[in-house]
Structure formats: C-alpha cells, structure tokens
Design goal:
15 strands, 7-stranded mixed sheet, about 40% helix, binds nicotinamide-adenine-dinucleotide
C-alpha cells in the first residue's frame, strides 16, 4: 500500500512537510496540495512534484485519491479541517495547536471517540526528537531514580512585534507542555507565569517564565524568550534523585578559531528539529500502513490546550491557576 497524502497549507511548515515527504519518507506519495494562496500552491507543487493542486480543502479531504491529510494551515483552520478528516475517516496529522481553544480540541476528541478509532496525530514533533527520546529512555531505565525537576529553555532569535507574550505561551511553550507531559508521563496540576519587569524594550517581547506542578509531585519550569538575539536554542535538563539528564546541545559543531571555541546556532527551529520532523512523518506513514497510531494524540492536543489556557489566565491575573484536564477516555489509555 502506498499512502496518498494531501497537504493543506504549504507555507513554512507545510512546504517543509512536502519536501520531507518526497525526499525522506518511504511508502507514500504527495498526491495533492491546497493553499489559500494559489501561487504558493503552484510553486510548491512544481518544487516537490505533487501530483495535483486541489481547488479547496474539503475536496482534497474527501477525494477518493487521498488516503491521509496533513493540516499545516493557520491555527484558526485546524478545528474544522481536522473534524472534516475524521468525518471522512482519513488519518490526519494536524500541526500544533490542535485547535485555538481547549473546548474545540475536546470536540475533536469526541468526534474521534464517536468513530471509535484514533485518526488524529497532533504535530508535537519533539516526541520524535532523538535527544528527548534518549531523555525519556534514561528516566525509564530507573537508574536515575525519580524525576524531580525539569528545567526547559526555549529561545528564538527575534519575533515580530505582533508576537505577544500570550503567543509565546499558546504557540511556543505548548511544545514544552507536550514534551514534558510525555517525558515525565504526567499531567500538570498548577501553573504560575512570571515576567521580568527589568526588560527594557516592549514588555511583550520579554521572556515569560512558567512554573508548573505535576500529578507526580514534580516541578517543571519553562523559560520562553522570543527575542534572545543570539540564536534558536532549546535546552532541557531533567534533575532526578540520582542523576541529571541534559538534552544534547544544538546540532551544529564547535568551531575553534582565534584563541576561542564557539558554537554556531541555527536561526530558527527547523535545523534544530530536522530529525524530529523527518522521523515524525516516517512514523506517521508507518502507523497508517499498520493501522495503528503514534505520537501526540488528539487527547494530548487537548491537554496542551488546557495547560495553555490556565497559563494565559495566570499571566493575566498574576496568580497560580489550577490545570483541570478531564478524565482520559479509554480510546487514549
Ligand atoms: N510543529 C512546529 O514546530 C511548528 C512550527 C511552526 C509553525 N507550526 C504550526 O504550523 C502551522 C502553519 O504555520 P506556518 O509557520 O507554516 O505558517 P505560514 O503562514 O508560513 O503558512 C500558512 C500557509 O497557509 C495558507 N493558508 C492561509 N489560510 C488558509 C486556509 N484557510 N486554507 C489553506 N491554506 C491557508 C497560507 O497561504 C500559507 O501558505 C500553524 O498552525 C503553526 O502553529 C508548527
């Protein structure tokens, strides 16, 4: 079986998914793409050799020539398009966030439960990143004892002025919410958000600092600094009772020159997580062929949205907020 994939939205992420599918993922073909910008769709179709360009997203989803769909259009489109894929019984890899609100994510979860099978994978690709996979394996080996504290850092070179502190939580920290839940195998129970008042430019560009408690009595702190200037940099350190696991540093080499040793950083997230994006798609196609599912589920997409909403409330009201995730349905156990 060759899985015929359609991609909706071929901007930065969708175009990258298209390139990865045609160059690195066995067992699939890029059958169709759709983008609200027809010129963009044409350019990516020519570049990747996509078999066709759809005239609208719903005809792509419902086409007999499409077996599975990637949704990489803007966040506001995810809910409706993912529901349409479930309704058409098509596996869908939806970019994060699964939907703009936890309530909309829950509608997707309920639609999937009504179908009785997992069709949705949420694009939290860090679950496929080799350094996080190693961290989880080290914890699961038991040698380090219990995990106590997970320090997470997420830094971008710079962000446009419309990228607010709220977006730093809802669009950036959500990656840490998901990967910390996955590494620790927990849910979060409380969140507090802080911002340093010492930041001298627009406060929306200041770092946000989150402290979360988990259902197993651990602490997770997350710094998201969208204007860190020096490079795209994701760090993580898991402090356990008998040892510490640190994420491998950025993929680039150290350069020794002129009496110094220096490391170069990528300008954005794509080089840092190139392996994760690749493995995510390889595993998604394998799972579709095997009739199984991998990666972050619709439920995980919902859980991340609940944490995000609690963190946004904490940011707005300057207090600790409870994180109330509903009981996990059997489909996701
Ligand atoms: N997993 C990750 O690491 C990661 C990183 C960045 C972005 N994202 C997510 O990926 C999604 C896309 O982000 P991006 O950075 O590629 O954005 P982008 O703006 O570069 O691309 C979005 C594309 O969607 C098209 N589009 C707009 N409205 C559409 C519609 N109604 N139907 C179909 N296409 C439409 C636009 O023309 C554009 O080509 C977002 O949901 C974002 O949150 C995920």
């Amino acid at each position: 079986m060759v899985v015929r994939v359609g991609i909706i939205g071929v901007g930065v992420m969708g175009a990258d998914h298209a390139r990865i599918l045609v160059s690195h993922v066995p067992g699939c073909v890029l059958q169709a793409i759709y983008d609200a910008d027809p010129a963009r769709a044409t350019a990516i179709a020519i570049e990747t050799g996509a078999a066709s360009i759809a005239s609208d997203p719903h005809s792509l989803i419902n086409s007999d020539n499409i077996d599975a769909v990637i949704v990489a259009s803007p966040d506001s489109t995810h809910h409706d398009l993912t529901l349409a894929c479930i309704s058409a019984n098509k596996p869908v890899l939806c970019e994060k966030p699964l939907a703009p609100s936890a309530a909309e994510c829950l509608e997707i979860v309920n639609a999937e439960i009504a179908k009785g099978r997992r069709l949705v994978q949420t694009g939290y690709m860090r679950r496929f990143d080799p350094s996080y996979v190693d961290m989880k394996a080290a914890l699961q080996s038991g040698q380090l004892g219990k995990a106590l504290i997970f320090h997470c850092m997420h830094r971008n070179v710079s962000s446009p002025s419309w990228f607010t502190s709220k977006m730093a939580i809802a669009n950036s920290a959500v990656h840490e919410f998901d990967v910390a839940r996955w590494v620790l195998d927990v849910d979060f129970t409380q969140v507090s958000v802080f911002k340093p008042s010492a930041y001298s430019a627009d406060p929306n560009g200041a770092p946000v600092f989150l402290v979360l408690s988990t259902s197993k009595g651990q602490l997770v702190n997350i710094e998201v600094y969208i204007n860190a200037t020096y490079g795209y940099d994701v760090r993580g350190e898991l402090v356990c009772e008998k040892g510490v696991v640190s994420l491998s540093p950025s993929t680039n080499n150290d350069v020794s020159f002129n009496l110094q040793q220096a490391r170069t950083y990528p300008a954005d997230w794509r080089p840092r997580f190139a392996a994760a994006y690749r493995i995510q798609l390889v595993e998604w196609i394998k799972a579709i062929k095997a009739g199984t599912s991998v990666g972050a589920s619709a439920w995980d997409g919902y859980a991340a949205a609940v944490i995000s909403e609690a963190a946004l409330l904490s940011l707005a009201e300057g207090r600790t907020v409870d994180v109330n995730v509903e009981t996990k349905p059997n489909l996701y156990q």
